[in-house]
Design a protein that fits this description.
- By secondary structure, this protein is mainly alpha-helical.
- The chain has a single domain, classed as Arc Repressor Mutant, subunit A (Orthogonal Bundle).
- It has a 3-stranded antiparallel beta sheet. It has a two-stranded antiparallel sheet with strand order 1-2.
- β1 and β2 form a beta hairpin.
- α1 runs antiparallel to α7, α3 runs parallel beside α7 and α4 crosses α5.
- The chain is globular, with a radius of gyration of 17 Å.
- The N terminus is likely disordered.
């Protein structure tokens, strides 16, 4: 497909959108996967990065509950498992999340977002701009 051609996407709900263009998706993906995480890893504390990662996972899963082990989260954040255990415990104590044996539940999304680094809002806004929610989803 050439850059100038629009792509048709079918969502999980069966809706079709031809407004999304491949170059937009490719640019966004390249920016998010190549530039944001390394910068975020250097600039923000583990707690902030963990909150961002949990919010992004909840967004992608379209659910506030999802399977996730501390070991996997430690790999994604490039920290020791004990650091994830500490941070997850603090976020749970703060009422943001509940976690138990490989399952995370986001209990208070707004509070979790206040714990997240600014990268989450930047990534979320860019994603929403590139892929606006379908009017029927609201």
């Amino acid at each position: 497909m050439r850059d100038s051609e629009a792509s048709t996407w079918t969502t999980r709900a069966g809706r079709t959108s031809s407004a999304v263009r491949w170059p937009t998706w490719a640019s966004l993906r390249r920016h998010v996967t190549n530039r944001c995480p390394p910068t975020c890893n250097r600039s923000h504390q583990t707690r902030q990065r963990c909150a961002r990662w949990l919010l992004m996972t909840a967004d992608r899963m379209h659910s506030d509950r999802f399977p996730l082990t501390q070991e996997f989260l430690a790999q994604m954040l490039a920290v020791r498992r004990s650091s994830v255990s500490e941070v997850a415990g603090a976020l749970a104590e703060d009422g943001c999340i509940r976690y138990s044996r490989g399952s995370i539940t986001v209990r208070d999304r707004d509070r979790l977002e206040t714990n997240a680094c600014s990268c989450y809002r930047v990534i979320r806004d860019a994603t929403d701009a590139a892929f606006p929610p379908h009017p029927e989803a609201a």
